[in-house]
Each structure stands twice: as structure tokens, then as C-alpha cells.
Specification:
Helix content is 33%, strand content 20%. It has 311 residues and is α/β, with parallel strands linked by helices. Helix 6 runs parallel beside helix 7. Bound molecules: ligand RRO. Ligand RRO binds next to loops.
Length: 311
């Protein structure tokens, strides 16, 4: 059987495979990160962190849905210094470490970026798109703030910085964000975060199914795959190849991963499927992707990357 090479790179950082965990489920504590380190995930991505420890939003704040999930976790995390201290042990697990940061201001993000610039992490993903903090808008939907934040954060060191984007739904928004990204040395983008502020109602109880924000939460999983694919595709066409794209949204099998490859993803992240299935999902999806590519006669990612065929 032909060997299929799924190795890739993000901002010059080599990844043995195309699949990694997303900043999201099961990546908050050392024990959870250790599980990811021992799995087939190509990197270890941490839960978005803040200056201080956060308990997160009141429960119930997560619910499985038939085709995904809705959640309003509210950034529960250990505080950035805990992740900073873990970096040497995480690196010792033998794969790239991606830290996600999600401060509440440019100043807070600057403090955290500076700290991680002076650490051994491989990539810094700045989360501009958490939808679940009461009273806080998503930076990614505020183009002026996105530009000011990038101006400040991209000059704090030489380690590659990327941004986690919200899903966009209008061509003018793809173009506006791409034009901002082009002004700065943004090395990668991760798209998409959950679709924020969706509402699932239980008709029996006549209540929302999660508690925070009156039931408004981030929609994840299969529901958002077409949106993730469109965002990856749009940005792949608008940005040049110096910006790598990490696709996220509804990847639960090898063909989902392959669809993101056709759209132009350099790598993909798995959130809801990892939440539901556990860390075995990485090897399973990897094997399914390899089998699907073998059937097609492809033996490396570049054989199909970005090569969506016109109808
Ligand atoms: O913790 C969360 O509620 C959360 C975050 Br930080 C995020 O970026 N996206 C999301 O759907 N949930």
C-alpha cells in the first residue's frame, strides 16, 4: 500500500500530520493536555487563557446536540502563568505547542503575547472570537479593534502569531478582514470559531438548554461545517500563501477533513468530535483521510490542497 504523507507546516513549524485539537474542549488542565500529547494530534493546543484563573460561566453551559453541540463555557482556564509554566513539560512530549490567548483588552493580550514570546511555545493563536463573555463583543466583528490589536500584538517578538477568527457571512466582511490581515505579519489564521449567540429551546420545559446569557451560546459541530468550509475557501482566495489557514468546524471523519483540504486548509483542528469521542478521534480521522486519499490516488496534501474544482 502506498504511504500517504499528511505532514504539513504552519508558519514554518513542521507538523507530522494535518490534524490537531482545537482550543476548546479537554485542553485546560495538565492531565487533559497530556492526553492530547500522547494522542495522534499533530500538536498540543491549549484552551484560551486569560490573565487570571477563571471558573467560567454557570452550568449547565454545554449540551450535546444531535449534530454537534451548543456551549457557553465562558473561558474557564487556569490563567496564563499556569500554561507558561507548563511549556517545558508540554514541549517534552515531542510535538509543537500552540498556546491560545484571549485577553479582554489589547493591554492584556500584549502582556500574554510578550510572556509567550519569551517561552518555548511554537505558535501563538490569539483568540479574537470568543462569543460567550456577557457584555463583551467579539473583537473579530469589530474591524477597527481587530486592526489596532494586530498593530500592537504583531510587533512584540519573532514567534509566529495567528488569529482565531469568528465565522463571517458576507463577502464584504471576508474582504475587509483579509485587507487588515495583509497589513501585518499575521502568519496563520484559524477559522472558524463557534457560531455565537445561537439559541436551542427545549419545548417540553419551555426553557433554553444552557444557562448563561439567557441560553445564547456557540453552535458547534456538523451544523457549522459549511460555514467553516466557506470561510477557509474565501480567505484562501483572498490571502497569499504566506498566511497558512487552519480549518475548524464540524470535522468528524476523513472526508470532512478532505473537504477542508480542497477548500485550502493547511491543517485542521477538531473540537466537538474530540469532546464526544475522546482522543482516539485523531488517529481514526487520520486513517480515514489516508484511506480516502489513497482511493483517489493522492499521496500528499499538496495533491489536493486548495484544488476545489469549479462546477
Ligand atoms: O470558553 C468559551 O466559552 C469559548 C471560547 Br473562549 C471560544 O473561543 N469559543 C467558544 O465557542 N467558547
Amino acid at each position: 500500500m502506498t504511504t500517504i504523507d499528511l505532514s504539513t507546516q504552519i508558519a514554518g513549524i513542521h507538523l507530522d500530520s494535518y490534524l490537531m485539537n482545537a482550543s476548546g474542549p479537554k485542553c485546560t488542565t495538565w492531565d487533559e493536555l497530556l492526553v492530547i500529547g500522547k494522542s495522534a494530534s499533530a500538536a498540543i493546543v491549549t484552551k484560551s487563557c486569560t490573565l487570571e484563573f477563571r471558573e467560567g460561566n454557570p452550568e449547565p453551559r454545554y449540551s450535546d446536540l444531535p449534530l454537534g453541540s451548543i456551549q457557553s463555557m465562558g473561558l474557564p482556564n487556569l490563567g496564563y502563568k499556569a500554561y507558561l509554566e507548563m511549556v517545558p513539560e508540554l514541549k517534552a512530549l515531542g510535538k509543537p505547542v500552540v498556546v491560545s490567548i484571549s485577553g479582554f483588552s489589547i493591554e492584556e493580550n500584549s502582556e500574554m503575547v510578550t510572556a509567550f514570546q519569551n517561552s518555548d511555545v511554537d505558535l501563538i493563536e490569539v483568540n479574537f472570537s470568543c462569543p460567550n463573555i456577557p457584555g463583551k463583543a467579539q473583537v473579530a466583528y469589530d474591524f477597527e479593534q481587530t486592526e489596532s490589536a494586530l498593530a500592537a500584538l504583531t510587533k512584540l517578538g519573532n514567534k509566529p502569531i495567528g488569529i482565531k477568527l469568528a465565522p463571517y457571512f458576507d463577502m464584504s466582511h471576508f474582504i475587509a478582514i483579509a485587507n487588515i490581515i495583509k497589513k501585518f505579519p499575521v502568519k496563520f489564521i484559524t477559522c472558524v470559531n463557534s457560531i455565537g449567540n445561537t439559541l436551542i429551546i427545549d419545548p417540553e420545559t419551555e426553557q433554553p438548554i444552557i444557562k448563561p446569557k439567557g441560553g445564547f451560546g456557540g453552535l458547534c459541530g456538523d451544523y457549522i461545517k459549511p460555514i467553516g468550509l466557506a470561510n477557509v475557501r474565501a480567505f484562501r482566495e483572498l490571502l497569499d500563501d504566506s498566511v497558512q489557514i487552519i480549518g475548524v468546524g464540524g470535522i468528524k471523519n476523513g472526508t470532512d477533513a478532505f473537504e477542508y483540504l480542497l477548500a485550502g486548509a493547511d491543517a485542521v483542528q477538531i473540537a466537538t468530535c474530540f469532546e464526544k469521542e475522546g482522543a482516539v478521534c485523531f488517529a481514526r480521522i487520520e486513517n480515514e483521510l489516508k484511506a480516502f486519499m489513497a482511493k483517489k490516488g493522492y499521496n500528499k496534501l499538496s495533491d489536493a490542497k486548495g484544488k476545489l474544482k469549479p462546477l
